[in-house]
Amino acid sequence: MSTAARSLTVAVVGATGAVGQDLLATLARSSLPVGDWRLIATRGTRTPRLEVDGAELPVHALPADSADSALWEGVDLAFFCTPPDVTSAHVGVLRERDVPVVDLSGALSGAAPLAVPAAGIDGLGEFADAGAIVSPSPSAVLLSSILRPLRALGATGAHGTLMLSAGLAGRDGVDELSRQVVAMFNQGEAPRKVFPTGLAFDVLPQ
Q1: Which value, in Å, is the radius of gyration of the alpha carbons in the chain?
Q2: Bridge-partner residues for 50, per DSSP?
Q3: Which of 22, 26, 27, 30 is the most buried (most CB within 10 A)?
Q4: What CA–CA distance (Å, rounded) separates 25 from 21?
């Protein structure tokens, strides 16, 4: 895919989440020639518009079934910043349409080349042929950035405890944690949809 000849229509799925918004800010500063943004969020989002590079743009709801959706028409490149199950449910449609996919959810791990610069893994050379590239889970990226220099020093094994944030469950996880904290201080009923056993002032083992 040549990006020098023309501007691109870029879809960002999960645009309203923490990862999606960081990605939008990064892409706006990059040299990627974006001519049109297609901002998409999971259904039920409470954010109808987002500002990208000084312009307010509409946020579209991710359709329940992507197969016949007009939302993907004209898309040249798609980024998925959604939980793995959401990515898996929709990414196949784009791959069938030969739309290159950048998976930031880890859903395509094992099925697409990896890109983990912190670990010296660069699958960009295979991107064009594979039609997709994947970054593993945030925890895997974090661990690789720590373990790579240790391996260079001769380490052959490591043990550690990784503390993951509520943000791994997306904006819904962050919002629910906030509401749980407020409810506990006000002796109210804490919402427990994303985290059924509660998370505020607690740690959940996995």
Answers
A1: 19
A2: 57
A3: 27
A4: 6
Report DSSP state, residue 70: G
Beta bridge partners of residue 59, listed in sequence order? 39
For the ranges 2-6, 62-66, 159-163, 182-186, which has the lowest average pLDDT?
A: 2-6
Angle between helices 18-29 and 170-185 (to 10 degrees): 130
- Residue 94 and residue 98: Cα distance in Å, rounded? 6
Phi, psi of 172 (to 5 degrees): -60, -40
Measure the CA angle with vertex 17, ends 100 and 103; round to 5°: 25
Main-chain phi, psi angles of 14, to 5 degrees? 95, 30
Confidence at 140, pLDDT banded by 50, 70, 90 = confident
Percent of residues in the chain assigned helix, strand, coil, to nearest 5: 35, 20, 45
Of 91, 127, 135, residue with least CA distance to 2: 127
Count of CB atoms within 10 A of residue 40's CB?
A: 29
Name the pTM for this structure: 0.74
Q: Assess contact for 24 and 50: CB atoms under 8 A.
A: yes
What's the length of the chain?
A: 206
